[in-house]
Amino acid sequence: MHELSICTAISGIAERHAAGRRVERVCIDVGGLRQVVPTTLSYCWEIVVTDTELHGSVLDVNEIPVSIDCAVCGTRTVLEHPVFRCASCAGSDVTVASGNELNITSLILQEV
Questions:
Q1: Helices (H), ranges, 19-61
Q2: What angle, 0 to 180 degrees and rounded to 10, lies between the N-to-C axes of helices 38-49 and 2-18?
Q3: Is the model's pLDDT at 111 over the cut of 90?
Q4: For the purposes of burial, counting CB atoms within 10 Å of the CB of 54, is it exposed (0-12), middle (13-18) or buried (19 or more)?
Q5: Which of 19, 22, 64, 97 is the most exposed place for a label (fewest CB within 10 A)?
Q6: How far is the C-alpha of 55 from the C-alpha of 108, rounded, in Å?
Q7: What does the DSSP 8-state code read for residue 21?
Q8: Angle at the Cα of 22 from the Cα atoms of 17 and 27, rounded to 5 degrees
Q9: CATH code assigned to 2-109
């Protein structure tokens, strides 16, 4: 379960950037190619932040769909299944446009 180690890393980053301020929410983007289960990530967050400065904070997971760009016809295709073919011309000369993300996008801090 790599979600636990991901949450541990995210919590460390969040604590450093919060610099002692109370964190209400940590917002992240997770791409579909990351093989991360969002519900497991949220569950692991609760475990990781217990008895820390982040206790009570929420991990807000924004799931980013996988999309590809076709080099032949220029079409961008959002994939529902892991078949890397253009929806327009069925070409396989494609590049991943989105779906590799694993980013902390923001921290929502409690107002003082």
A1: 38-49
A2: 60
A3: no
A4: buried
A5: 19
A6: 14
A7: S
A8: 60
A9: 3.30.2320.80
The reply to whether the predicted model has a pTM over 0.70 is yes
Residue spans of the domains in the chain: they are: 2-109
46-90 per-position pLDDT tens digit: 999 999 999 999 999 999 999 999 999 999 999 999 899 999 999
The one-letter code for the residue type at 22 is R
Phi/psi of residue 80, each to 5°? -95, -25
Q: Please list the alpha-helical segments (H only) found in 1-112.
A: 2-18, 38-49
Note the pLDDT of residue 1: 61
What does the alpha-carbon distance between residue 21 and residue 111 come to, in Å, rounded to a whole number? 9
Tokens read off for 67: 């999309």
| Residue 31 burial (CB count, 10 A) | 20
Q: Chain centroid to CA 19: how far?
A: 23
Residue 34 CB contacts under 8 Å (≥ 6 apart), including other chains: 99, 100, 101, 102
